[in-house]
Specification:
By secondary structure, this protein is α/β, with parallel strands linked by helices. It folds into three domains: about 180 residues, Rossmann fold; about 260 residues, Orthogonal Bundle (N-(1-d-carboxylethyl)-l-norvaline Dehydrogenase, domain 2), CATH 1.10.1040; about 160 residues, 2-enoyl-CoA Hydratase, Chain A, domain 1, CATH 3.90.226.10. The protein is built from 21 helices and 21 strands. Strands 3-2-1-4-5-6-7-8 form an eight-stranded mixed β-sheet. Strands 15, 16, 17, 18, 19, 20 and 21 form a seven-stranded mixed β-sheet that branches. It has a three-stranded antiparallel β-sheet with strand order 9-10-11. β17, α18 and β18 form a beta-alpha-beta unit. It is globular. About 40% of the residues are buried.
């Protein structure tokens, strides 16, 4: 099969999402043309020009380097349609209006290259309906591609096919989005709001409903539903502010318009939870007031100076915020999963009952809708992790807490009328392979209720390059912390090789993984690196310094130096600094290549380690710097030497 090469991408629509998708393509060194309507006054590219300039002002920044905005080629539909002929991928990202999108497709169709993939970045419109406006020649190359906002930072991209989409089109697009754009891809069915927004927004609406039921304030809810619950630190209402209340209202309206609470509405239309999709009164009030969240500097919360105020629906004003959850529930949320859910379900206080209610609702909704919206349970869990910042998806938490025990707890609440609706849990929850396996995730794959089988992870060539792809609880996937062949390990360092590496010097690479907290560099790490270097020079082709989490190294271990300073003063510190400098020089002048594979934080000594390596391979979201300079300190391991050079 020929390889799909993307040499240039066209993005149609310079709105919030279109412009930021173009920015991320530039971040990843993919040439991009950004199109929009011709301006009615001034230069015809005026709309695109303003959008590109606006990218430099957005926070968090959609651009890795602000100056790269100049790399976005600007175009309009009146003068530059011929440019589409040179694009391998066309991403449509105009407003969520079916009629507007269909009209645009008719205009671009004559200019699309014969091999190009055309994809719509819609958050919920039917991809199949959109495809009907395209010529027969383009339909096999058309699909949905749903980036999450903001595209630079959110890992999830959903791909959606139509009945006429050729299978290799999604394979090619998945490979490009994964390897070039650094995203996690999930294939969703063509149902309203796809997977992540269907489950996630239904969950946010259910949360808002339970907030009313239990009479809790928005700041307490955000404290409960943030990191303490294993979710995004912004919680529920702050997340809504960041996304934009108008955007959230649009996604809610898609659910309201495309689904029905009438059981006779037909397959794909009926949703037994429909009654909980009503637009919350507080959201409607904020929209009417023009308070759309972060973009208007007021939503559920409003910052005044250093003070964070919260909206009060009764008075329609902002009142002092900052209220925190009761400490007893903070302690409950630290318990193992099974004990945690039992404690919350049996809690007497409103906050505990609220937490159990939203978790129960999540289990209930995901189970009832799994067959309709997704190919398997793994896709739902990954969508919620990658698209909504959760540490675990609903099925993972359910399985960890004890599958049958939790299923019976949810069933009891449904039977007692405490759940959002009376729809029973599907039969597969209580019997057959899922019951026997103790959940939906197994080493063989994840449960597909349509086929009644556990589905393995999709095998594509791009995934063969990922030694430790992200997995789900229960899959028993190999962990980078324990995989491979360990040659040396102590509290500070692990030296190892991959299982598929050859053991001879002609084939193998030695890997050095720092194990200390925040991967701080102390005497043990220095000793381990030098031991690894000696071993690599003797037997291997090279040394890779690699981290399997979001911290490459936060710098020197100052705590480890404190005893030496207390007993020996500055002279003792000087000796420690000299040892670090000499170790860095040995890495720099090694007889084999030393490569630093950087992801996340590489600060102080971590930055110096990368600078002294022969090569650096850095993930897009790496934050590298000699932070000690900011407080007037000279970097101790000689970092300024090579950065200056």
């Amino acid at each position: 099969m020929s390889r799909f090469n993307v040499k240039k991408v066209a993005v149609l629509g310079a709105g919030v999402m279109g412009a930021q998708i173009a920015a991320h393509l530039v971040n990843c060194k993919v040439p991009v043309i950004l199109f929009d309507l011709p301006a009615k006054e001034g230069p015809k590219n005026g709309i695109v020009t303003r959008a590109v300039e606006g990218l430099k002002k957005l926070k968090p920044s959609p651009l890795g380097v602000a100056e790269d905005a100049a790399l976005i080629q600007q175009a309009n539909y009146e003068e530059h349609m011929d440019l589409l002929k040179g694009c391998d991928l066309v991403i449509e990202a105009i407003a969520e209006r079916m009629d507007w999108k269909l009209d645009l497709y008719k205009k671009i169709a004559p200019f699309v290259a014969p091999h190009a993939i055309v994809a719509s970045n819609t958050s919920g419109l039917s991809i199949t309906q959109l495809s009907e406006a395209l010529p027969e020649a383009i339909k096999p190359r058309f699909c949905g591609i749903h980036f999450f906002n903001p595209p630079r930072y959110m890992l999830l991209v959903e791909l959606i096919n139509t009945p006429t989409t050729e299978p290799h089109v999604l394979d090619d697009l998945e490979a490009f989005v994964t390897s070039h754009l650094g995203k996690g891809v999930v294939r969703a069915k063509d149902t309203p709001n796809f997977i992540a927004n269907r489950v996630g927004v239904a969950g946010m609406l259910a949360t808002m409903k339970e907030v009313q039921n239990f009479g809790l304030s928005y700041d307490v809810v955000d404290d409960l539903t943030g990191k303490k619950l294993g979710r995004a630190s912004s919680g529920t209402f702050r997340t809504a502010d960041v996304v934009g209340l108008d955007t959230m209202a649009h996604v809610i309206k898609t659910l309201q318009d495309t689904l029905s609470g009438d059981a006779t509405a037909g397959a794909g239309k009926f949703d037994p939870f429909y009654a909980s999709f009503a637009t919350p009164e507080v959201l409607q009030t904020l929209l009417e007031m023009g308070h759309l969240g972060q973009k208007t500097k007021a939503g559920f919360f409003k910052k005044v100076g250093r003070e964070i105020l919260r909206f009060d629906l009764a008075s329609k004003t902002y009142v002092p915020g900052g209220e925190k959850a009761d400490e007893v529930y903070t302690r409950m949320l630290k318990k193992p999963a099974a004990e945690r859910l039992q404690l919350l379900r049996n809690a007497e206080g409103a906050q505990g009952q609220f937490l159990w209610a939203i978790l129960r609702n999540a289990f209930h909704y995901a189970a009832v809708h799994l067959a309709e919206i997704a190919d398997n349970a793994r896709d739902v869990d990954l969508c919620m992790r990658w698209g909504f910042g959760m540490k675990q998806g609903p099925f993972e938490l359910w399985q960890e807490a004890g599958w049958l025990t939790v299923a019976n707890m949810v069933k009891q609440d449904i039977d007692a009328g405490k759940a959002l609706c009376s729809a029973p849990l599907p039969d597969w929850v209580f019997k057959g392979p899922v019951l026997e396996a103790g959940g939906v995730h197994t080493p063989q794959g994840s449960w597909n209720p349509t086929t009644g089988q556990f589905v393995p992870v999709r095998q594509l060539p791009v995934y063969a390059r990922q030694h430790f792809p992200e997995s789900v609880l229960g899959a028993n996937a190999p962990s980078a912390a324990t995989a491979g062949t360990t040659l040396f390990e102590d509290d500070a360092m692990r030296l190892w090789t991959l299982d598929d590496d050859k053991t001879s010097a002609s084939g193998s690479v030695l890997v050095a993984s720092i194990k200390t907290k925040m991967h701080a560099i102390g005497p043990g790490v220095i000793a381990g690196l030098l031991q690894g270097l000696a071993l690599a020079e003797e037997k291997y082709k090279g040394l890779v310094i690699w981290s399997n989490d979001e911290v490459f190294s936060a710098g020197a271990d100052l705590q480890a130096m404190l005893p030496a300073f207390m007993t020996g003063g500055v002279k003792a510190i000087a000796q420690a600094e000299l040892a670090m400098q000499q170790a860095m020089l040995k890495l720099r002048y090694a007889n084999v290549p030393v490569v630093s594979a950087v992801r996340g934080l590489a600060l102080g000594g971590g930055c110096e380690l990368a600078a002294y390596s022969a090569k650096r391979v850095a993930a897009m979201e790496s934050y590298i710097g000699l932070v000690e300079v900011g407080v007037g300190l000279v970097p101790g391991a000689g970092g300024l030497t090579y950065i200056a050079r």
